[in-house]
């Protein structure tokens, strides 16, 4: 019995459509410390999912590209540095930017909160 090619293609397209889109984000570490873990959650959510770093992201300009799977474009990115310091970048637009430049936490910032401004130089445009 031969299955028509159209049916096979239809079933394959339905299976692919069920997966959320994947966005790629390049992290550029301009801090002095190495990033040991990174995770992302939909903006405003606490459901952080680990991002795959092959090895710690060295400070001083090391970079790595990670994949972020999800329907939305805005994510909170949480970083854990060697030495237990943590940093949170809120509302990162992974659709409009191809990367995120990590900077040392400014003095007076709230407990590891990395300030993000509209058109911030931290975001790398396409």
From TrEMBL:
Cleavable signal peptide: 1-17
Highest taxon listed in the record's lineage: Bacteria
Region of interest (Disordered), residue spans: 103-126
Keywords assigned: Signal
Protein name: Uncharacterized protein
Organism (species): Chiayiivirga flava
């Amino acid at each position: 019995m031969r299955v028509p090619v159209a049916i096979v293609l239809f079933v394959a397209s339905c299976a692919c459509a069920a997966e959320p889109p994947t966005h790629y984000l390049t992290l550029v570490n301009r801090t002095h410390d190495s990033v040991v873990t990174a995770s992302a959650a939909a903006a405003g959510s606490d459901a952080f999912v680990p991002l795959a770093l092959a090895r710690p992201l060295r400070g001083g300009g090391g970079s790595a590209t990670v994949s972020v799977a999800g329907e939305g474009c805005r994510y909170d990115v949480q970083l854990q540095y060697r030495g237990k310091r943590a940093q949170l970048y809120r509302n990162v637009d992974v659709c409009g930017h191809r990367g995120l430049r990590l900077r040392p936490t400014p003095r007076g910032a709230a407990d590891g909160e990395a300030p993000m401004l509209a058109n911030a130089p931290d975001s790398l445009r396409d």
